[in-house]
Amino acid sequence: MAEMQKMIPDMMPAETPSQARVLLIDDQSIVGEALRRMVENEQDIELRYCSDPTHAMGEAIEFRPTVILQDLVMPEVDGLVLLRFFRANPVTKTTPIIVLSSKEDPAIKSEAFKIGATDYLVKFPDQIEVVARIRAHTRTYLAQQQRDDAYRALRGMQIELEKKNAELQRLSSLDALTGIANRRRFDEYLDQEWLRAARDAKTFSLILIDIDHFKAYNDNYGHQGGDECLRKVARALDGALMRPGDMVARYGGEEFAVILPDTDLDGAAVIAEKLRSSIDVLGLEHRHSKTSDHVTISLGVASIVPRDGGVPATLVKMADDALYEAKEGGRNRFRIFIAEANPSIASQVG
Predict the structure, then answer these.
(1) Alpha-carbon distance 249 to 333, whole Å?
(2) Most buried in the list 115, 169, 279, 308, measured by CB within 10 Å?
């Protein structure tokens, strides 16, 4: 029994056989010989005989039968216990099992079916009946295996399709040049976080960023140089953000935007300075800038607690006005939106 218990690994079925494979388990060799003679002329039936029930599970795992014929009364292992082992193993849990008994006992038959027997025969059964039942149970088993294989293949294709769709969705949300979120993803995330902030009455911040004198950079370093500059700036901005919910996106051209959920104005100002410094320390040469000898950025910072009826465009306008003030103030700096200086927008914020 201990040997049989070791043979209950979590093994999945191997390749489904194409013909009847019968595993006969009976301690009486006369029974084995009788069954051998019954099927020896049947070209579509292969028989394997196991006289030691403690080896039955190993034989089943190796042989992969389409039908198991097993005695109910055997030394060392009770037939009903063996039946339970077969039904507990992933390899044999669906294999048709015909139990063989020396007598027609309704109580034993009922118990066998309760445990998981597929059929019941009294020894010695008629040859025609045995062959017919083997073929019938094999057809049913193989049909079920084919359905299971088809389902697994279909599920595999569905999983692969889901992965490809997820990858496509991810790629459609990224800016092809810089690899960060694109404008489409920015708009989606802005709407999403706006609604969440409105629902939870949380402060929501936005930073708009512009590379200073980028047209002069493009004109003098070429478009390839300009593209490389955009990539380096994007990486630096993205690397400066620490929280998973914060997102930097390419807003358009040389403009970037940073969405900061659950962030008040003071917190957004700290992050703005960190972003400005991250580009300043890159030291990207820009000999044609009127602000510095290297690439710099200007930033506009705005915060809001969204109210019912408000729209995200309000926050964008606030950050854009602050960005304009940063440029007018000499660039390479950030400015915070002040509601008192913009009464028309202040009335919308409430």
Answers:
(1) 19
(2) 279
